[in-house]
């Protein structure tokens, strides 16, 4: 069922009780279907787009924080854009970084608004590299088409603020723009995605197309 916080209170009170639903994943055809679909969803077939919901470095100040949530160190961000081929950058707070990953999904919509994607085990191959002398405040990422920054916090507007602040820092420090220039660019080219609104900390993604940045 939908998380109560993503609909109006009256609608939330009318939602049916939570039920366990099972999905089948056809890896060869990259399709996801319900095992026992109701009549209204009998024809539903989703394209599998596997990604990791949770990966990060250790949090700052020797904190021990549940992997159910997220912060400036990464964590359970559940961003469906973190697929194969994407490069992700994390600030490092502890010696050795203590990188970890998990929470495989076969597919999931934006926001993880039912509290889960189609959970699945994944075989993951990745490489890590330390960028010495590079300082960032929040997770960043690079796909074939976009640069993006992820803010994790609650309420939702604070997560958006963290993501936008990190993008502003990237444009001013890495691209040499003034704050005014970066503001003008973001005002007309920025894209946002709500990655998660279910976990203790929400996640918002601030994106800028590489096609726009190539003009600088």
Explain the overall architecture.
- This protein has 2 domains: 4-47, no CATH class; 51-213, Acetamidase/Formamidase-like domains (Endonuclease I-creI), CATH 3.10.28.20.
- Helix content is 18%, strand content 25%.
- The protein contains 4 helices and 12 strands; from the N terminus they run αββββββββββααββα.
- The chain has a 5-stranded antiparallel β-sheet.
- A hairpin with a 2-residue loop joins strand 5 and strand 6 (74-76).
- The protein is globular, with a radius of gyration of 19 Å.
Indicate the low-confidence ranges by residue numbers.
Answer: none
Compressed to H and E, one letter per element, the order equals: HEEEEEEEEEEHHEEH
Q: Cα distance, first to last residue? A: 45 Å
CATH A-level architecture of the largest domain = Roll
Helix content: 10-25%
Per DSSP, the total helix count is 4
Give the tally of structural domains.
2
Output the radius of gyration.
Answer: 19 Å
Number of strands: 12
Supply the CATH class of the largest domain. Alpha Beta
Mean pLDDT: 96
Largest sheet: 5 strands, antiparallel
Strand order of the largest sheet: 7-9-10-12-11
Backbone shape: globular
- CATH fold-level assignment of the largest domain: Endonuclease I-creI
Beta-strand content: 25-35%
* CATH homologous superfamily grouping of the largest domain: Acetamidase/Formamidase-like domains
Provide the structure class: alpha+beta
